[in-house]
Write a structure and sequence with these properties.
Blueprint: H1 9-39, H2 42-45, H3 51-58, H4 63-78, H5 81-88, H6 93-110, H7 116-124, H8 131-141, H9 145-148, H10 169-182, H11 188-206, H12 212-236, H13 250-260, E1 280-284, E2 299-303, H14 304-315, H15 317-323
Antiparallel strand pairs: 1-2
The structure holds zinc ion.
Length: 329
Amino acid sequence: MEALSRITNEELNQKIQFFVREERRITVEVLRLLREIERRLVYSELGYPSLFAYCTGGLGYSEAAASRRIEAMRAMREVVEIEKKIESGELSLSSVSQARVAIRAHERETKVKVSIEQKKSVMLKLSGLSKRAAEKVLAREVPVTLSARPVPQKQLATGDTRLTLDLTEEEMAVIEDLRRLQRKTQSTKDLMMNLARKEVAKKKRELGEASLVRESKQKVKVIAPLARKVLTPLAEGKASSGKNTRLFSAPVKRFAWRKAHGQCEFVSALGYRCEARNRLEFDHRKPVSHGGESSLQNIRILCREHNIFQAVQRLGAPVMARYLPGLGI
Ligand SMILES: [Zn+2]
């Protein structure tokens, strides 16, 4: 490449115009590739629990850059016109992703699905607009009343504290997952308080603030059922919950959880182990339909994505698409 210091200002301008056009063309190409990678669950095969994890961990994008690309790719899938608009520079990735985020918030708030036609109309209105102008249009077109609506405030008892948390979708998913895994109907507040109390008790024990009597009692409580229910069937080499059941018994699940250290056990062909620690599910290594038992030897922990990926591998994409139309197959 010729030395940039020697070319004229006009040439400099022409050059940058050319490369910016190329940059946009390549961006759209990246979005197309991402769409195909998502459709074929390639990220899952490579050991990533989500397309987002693949974009950050496998492709090196920042979290924000990964989100913008994924949102834009999905917008492109829903509204075909978006592709040309991004390529021509009329629509930026951030406008498109902002629009999708606003539309989702609106859907959550109103519990009404926004049609593809409406989405198209909103997104195309953002053509050629700056970030700020796009925000204004979105506020007008997609009124998200979540923050605007005055929330009736309950009177607090003296000495009480009101705590308000703004959680992202991903953070809220972790809480929902925890609630599901605990299998106890409890409010978010109760869930958080129980966790906090447990953590306080644990820290106190670590710091020697709890009495030794209490600690030894707790140990007995945990070890005794494990020894009785898990270790005995293991020694006898039997399934702990009967041969013909699809369900794993609680001790088998506890054993599997500890063995996997609460992390998805999927390993890609290149030896990369999935790092997912939420949305985890218990899976039969050998499916029940193929004679697999609900035993210690046949249990493993997979994240939701890898459970789906394994099912697609076993049953084939057309079969799974019938059950999971959102899979994009
Ligand atoms: Zn996984």
